[in-house]
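Amino acids appear as letters; backbone shape is given numerically. Here is one record.
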Amino acid sequence: MIEFVQFERMVQPRIGARKLKYLMQNCELNIGRDRLFQLLRAHRLLVPTRRAYHKTTNSHHRFHCHPNLVKSGLNVTKAEQLWVADITYLPTHSGETYVSLVTDAYSRKIVGYQVDDNMKTSSVKQAFRQALRNRQSSGHLVHHSDRGIQYCSPLR
């Protein structure tokens, strides 16, 4: 059984235990999931998990941050009362691509977005403008973000 795992790991170095268990069942090597994990751990054959992390927030800046209304108990009862904004990244062959999103907190619908190769304020601004153009109601609206530099910048 250990020889089977070592051979598979030579072909696919990052293959996980659950996939190994599936392959073993196809070769009529029956073992339970927990027992397989114990064996792999005992022979130091578990693959360490890699956590993808990419920093997109700089909250320690000199610009003014507005109070956090969500933390102070904002009660959302319908759509278009609270929009939540954030930036995430997507790894691509040519580097990273950043996506600025504006999401309605009640319906969880993306109401505005912008894809760019940087994290500049202009991308955040374009996503917010798109969300405003698509807005259906004219009631009270709170725009909430992680208060990173792109959201607090004085660029108009």
